[in-house]
Amino acid sequence: MARLNDDAQWIVLMGFLISLAFFFLAILLNQSVVVGQTTAEGVLEFPKNDIRDFHTEVVRVSQANVGNFSDPRSQGILADFQNLSMNRKGAVASFNTSSAQPGFFTAKVYKINLHYSNGVSVYNETAYY
Amino acid sequence: MVDHAAGQLYTIEGIAAALIMLVTAWIVLGTTTMYTPGDTHISDMQLEQLGSDVLAMMDTPNTSLENRAQTSDLQKFIKNNYSAVSSPPGDYHKGPELFNTMFLSYANGLTNGRADHLQYAATVYYRNATTPTGSYEFSRTRNITPGDHAVRVTRWVLIDNTITSGPTDYKSLTPAGTAILDRRWQEVLVEVLIWRG
Amino acid sequence: MKHDTAYLSIDFLAGFTIFMVAFIWVATMIPGLFVNVRGTQIDYDAVAYRTGVILTEDPGWQVDGTSEWEVIDDARVPEEVKRIGWAIAKENPGVLSAVKINRSFCSTAFTYPESYQDKVIFGDMPYRFNISVLTNGTTYQSVGDIRPNGAYGYIRRVVKVKQMSDSTIPAYAFMSEGTSPNHMFSPELNITDLLFKEQNLAYQINPRQESTAINITNVSWVYGNQSNLDYFDSGVEKPVGTSNLKVRLLDVNITRLNPSEPLVAIPPFGHEVYIDGGSTPVIPRQSSPVVVQENVSILFNSTFFAAEGKTTTASRIFVNFTFGLWNTSNSTYDDGYCINSTFGNNLFRYDYGSPWVHEPVLEPAILEVAVW
Prior knowledge:
Strand content of chain B: 15-25%
Largest sheet of chain B: 4 strands, antiparallel
Structural class of chain C: alpha+beta
Order of helices and strands of chain B: HHHHHEEEE
Number of helices of chain B: 5
Distance between the termini of chain B: 83 Å
Oligomer: heterotrimer
Strand order of the largest sheet of chain B: 2-1-4-3
Structural class of chain B: alpha+beta
Number of helices of chain C: 7
Largest interface: B-C, 49 and 57 residues
Helix content of chain B: 25-40%
Radius of gyration of chain C: 34 Å
Number of strands of chain B: 4
Strand content of chain C: 25-35%
């Protein structure tokens, strides 16, 4: 035989083409299902409520006048945040305050640096209260 | 000389093509997974948002006066030992009950007036001089274990345990009546587990 | 030689048949791929969640670049309101403004369903939706279709709604100490003070953005407090009995004092009031005074003070009630004891901490959004 007989290879090629089309369709449909799941998981994963809560709480501490570190009553608050946040929520939450009088304020205010990180999302803020 | 095996090509090619298609189909259908709504975490997301909302609203002062004093309903309930200035008399140690009533009314209300069936279990975590991370159970709906797809929501609460005015000590009390927090300004973490039951 | 060779060989037929059978069998499996595609259900939940966030955590947006979309009048709403949001401010997520909520359910401003799909729901597909709010267990507002029996996207949010503030002024607290022909009572709203003393918008009294009301009550005290009023009947001095005395409201107007400007009156020159709990308002005038037995109420809706040219954030506003003591036995106005601000320290300030002012209260509410 001088050359291979390739008469009927069109049948196999047709079968092959159909398989490829099948795979492609299946991949498309498979990915579509995951869309909704990633939306919900994205919402769950971002700690929106944790960050807001932490921010509100630090402001509350500051306005109750114990965010000032020199006040002995407030010594434990930072340790409370760090400890409970790490053990219960797996996140680093800390803040430090210093009294500041930036040019645009006449009353004494506190400058607060907040830091929150749960390993995936990191939040830093500098605020004056 | 006629090649008697010429036609066998067609048969073989046909069988090969059929095999390819069948194997493909088997692989594809074998890997598709059935997603139940639970797998997609959508109900978890809805419940978590609702729980966070409820705790946040319980922790929002209702009037300008409360805002200036930086007090909220949730703070009063967790303290469970109100100073006489800021609470109705006779409600001294009703923190868990009042928490229960308010939490369920916020979480289970529907706009058509009917009620949903969410259950919860609330625990308070604290840090004091002797215990790095202690906890006590604060309030719950029924004495059963949480169901599937329970969601955990938390809220920080600032407690003032420094008041010892007059003959009465206004230190926070657990539902059992013990005083385990330090005598200082303290942050505790209220953790509520919510599930549909 | 007979030509009886076939066109297609048997082998070819066999192979082709096997191929076709396999192909048909695989083709019938394709519907099985679609079994777990419930994509629309998952999409609806995401849209419902997003709508819930926009309504409860976003204060809204209008072309000016501010969030005060609730004051735009009906004709300009379609172009100028970009996004409806109910939050009071972006610093107060979860605290909603009752004015914004009521405005967004106004069918004259927002057409169902296009306005809402455009300004709240967003997305290329025309989703059907239902948005319902129940405030404090009593007030129910909703827009949209009835929810279907099948699956739909859903989110429920718990929020607090800021209510209006009002004041209830009892007459006995502001009676004049001496007799006077002048019976003008002028409660003051000092806008600068009100906005400065409480910076948190959730608790702030802001007459330029929310409704306020002034209720003067216990006017019957005036009748019982006139020990001195006499009149002359044919030369004989007689005391005016309480049955002969009527308290009349002669005029109600509003004046404004801006810094470095004189006191000016704000239109309408003669504001309507509700007398003794009546449901129809009246406008008292010198020519047609109104008798008051027990109480007078005036209500300013949320857009009154902020309207063009009326007040600024530095204004002091005075609501001037002119009362007269009418002696029916001799048809004249008498000097006497009445509610007024001209005597002593009788100026009423609509302010935080006043025992007669009900500051805005936050009431819990539930929002449900369904999308399908």
